[in-house]
Prior knowledge:
The chain is an all-alpha fold. It has 21 helices and no strands.
Amino acid sequence: MKLLLVASGSLCRRALLPRPAVCAMAISPLLRGAGQRHLSTRSEAHATLGLPPDATLEQVKGAYYKLAMMHHPDRSTEPDAAERFAAIGAAYNKILGLPERARRDSKAREGPQQAPFAAAFPPWVYRTAEYLHRVPQRLDTWLAPSYASTIYHHLRREELAEALEVLEEMRLEGEQPSHAVYEMLIRGCTIAMRRPSIGEQPDHLTVNLVQRVLELWGDMEKMGRKPDYLTYIELMRAFGKGGATAQALQLFEKMCNSVRLLPEQRAFNTIYEVCVLNGAYSEALRLFGEHEEMRKSLWKPRFTPVSFSLLLTAAAEQGPELAARVRHLPRLLHEMGSHGVLPRVETCERLVRSCLEVDELEIAQQVVQLAARAGHTIDPKLAAAVAAGGWGQAQERERVRVPADETKPLR
């Protein structure tokens, strides 16, 4: 790739100096309280993004990405961030002629959460290691900035809009983006997307970033840049965050049919997460069967604790076909035992409840035994229901049980 001289001006300044958000102060009054009102004209939509009416499509996209990420409710601490974010999305849809999307469901259930981070060293160790790790990259950016290093520099600072602007400048200068540039931008877009909870609809920024990822993917194919294994995984993650489960499954099937892209644990965990977050529990369990079959080959993709956590959720989460999904638990518990992975007590109790709800008493007993093997003591009511043969029998025994005081002889 051709390197640019330090004296080249704009590119070097972009690489070394942070760039302020475009028209942030100018549009602030326009966004206040605008989340609930309809943008009647295109000029009003342009004003919301701080742009003139004759702004180009790339200028509209650049302003939208900057402002949407700045005012995203998960990033901004301003009290009216949600209203500003909604106004930005409405303005972008109005300019591009896209249909209005429904607001996010705030009552969506939380999916499996990662365990809290436990630091192994004092904080100064991590800060020092991070600084030393970035020294060569900073020197490279300063001494011989290239388009690729500048894009990477912006993505490290979570400046996705600026990175996409550098890509457009790169094309105008006649530079051919490399595979690494496309992969960095696809990953940057995926990271900027919001990870939805189970049953939650993606926000407008996530939906538009998925479309941007598809554009980058199409450009790669046109230029003959063959996506590698990690790029496929990033595209699956983008589809998952955008709610496009069918497209993610098609991409995974394509990987299974290619020797060059045969999935291992990272790809399986990614597609499991996509299915669980979008409520496609039966599809996740179907892929679990393919995972088992593939382990009989020379490839042998591993199961990980993350795999088991997602599959347990797929098997026991409330929803359609619960009885059929619970019947996958014996195989799943067998794999967990063979890998030395034991569930937490909360997970065991959730599995027992699901088994009792669909009258799968034998499977519930297996879960209780696994909990005892892990040293857990489950809820006494659940244990009593399993011992009694189900919820109905346990309630009947509780109803006909005679209190101890009533058995004493009268005096």
